[in-house]
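so im writing up the methods section and need the 3-dehydroshikimate dehydratase record in one place, dumping it here so i stop losing it
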Amino acid sequence: MSISLCTITFRHHLQSIENIATWAAKNDFEGIELWGAHARNLACHEKYDALWIQSYGLSVSMISDYLSFHVSTEAVCDHVAELSDLAKRWQTDKIRVFAGDVASQAATSSTYEQVVNTLRLACEQLQAHGQMLVIETHPHTLADTPASLVRLIEEVDYPNLKVNFDVLHIWESGADPVIVYKDLESHIVYMHLKNVRARADLAVFAPEQVFSASGVREGMTSLFGGCINYERFFKEIAPINKELPMALEWFGEAPFSVLQQDKNDLARCLYHT
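--- predicted struct ---
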């Protein structure tokens, strides 16, 4: 399995892409998941591209961004075209988005239709370039439960609509990540890995916390120090797919030390499964 770090980890830390790439290579990461905001800013500098990151022995595993579902068709197409160009620049075929900003249980029929139509439009546009639109399993979206995710996949009905399997958020929905992974394996092309101290602490991953420089971080834990039993998870799914790319998604303090520990612990876990 290929392990990446996410540049969103450094959203509140003053680190250059050179520092991140140098550290990632030194600590045996295979890739970097590039946050859309970072990808757009790096595009202003001609030297930063796939060849540059490959010089570190790394690749960009995915571009992670967000679609707006409340704008015109033209605006959606322009945004998707920009993301497609960024993906080409970094030679990745994966573009991560969320399935709207309304929980599946709260979505009206018109909201659901709007999200489905926007995702179809994006899939059609990306399909022409051999690229995938990767939906993240995430609360307060139309992919917040396994059932709602399956419905969304069926409704959009495009072969390049794929899934970023966020283990914690699947667990948050009340489902068993092992069972859901096995059920959805044919649609999954990527995984996000993080953990939490207790179910009562899940609010630390809410956007208003994660994106706030003064947001609460207490309750975030190292990958093998929280509620989710990753040793069991990887032992159970290992026979299915040993090649799936994954990323350590850390939003807390001391990113380098936590990522180093998590990478080492994860590598040991994968090696023994």
